[in-house]
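User: Here's a chain of 234 residues. Predict its fold as tokens.
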Amino acid sequence: MSAAVPAEGSHLSIGEVLNRLRPDFPDLTISKIRFYEAAGLVEPARTPSGYRKFSAQDVERLRYVLTAKHAHYLPLRVIKDQLEAIDAGHGDLAEPGPPEGGPRFDLAPSDVRLTREQMLDETGLDAEQLAAIDESGLLHRRRGGYYDGDDVTIARIVAELGRFGLEPRHLRSFKGAADREVGLVEQLVVQPNTRRRGSAGLERSRDTAAEIATRLARLHAALLQAGLRHTLSP
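Assistant: Prediction complete.
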């Protein structure tokens, strides 16, 4: 059962927030709460001496963020957009559901940059687990050795599949299949638009690529469901 949130008008320290949310999110740490603050997902008040003071609304925003990340694997950019919509009066902080119509693709450059230590803290993996995922080639470490938001999502999913006996090396074929789909979308969208310059052309290419990717993901899910249904039929 979720811990109670502070009463209206009262405030909690960052440590008290951690204690309230940790029963539902055991991997949560103070550094992660600070990370979500730096990403603009929550904005606690500050005392004159600089200490953070979290309101009931702040705690519920953090719960929303954590649920969206852990249950539905939404990227931070999408979560931030959802919170901005809620702030504008479109929706509330009830438990977020999965994106309508299956996965949604956010193809704007990721603004998340994590060191190896931050990646371990954010995902809850140990060094050996992260090394195995790195060696499998499933992650897209950026120039300078930093991890981004996509790497966080991929690493979490791979770690969860490990509970069923699937190791990172078993999943290399999925990376190969994804790379082939990326190549197909590139042929359809990116290459024909190389002569289009400026942000408008780039944004149009991203929108079209996201639409194609969404349908490819739905096709993959439908094929997987059909195959498993056939396999498990009497």
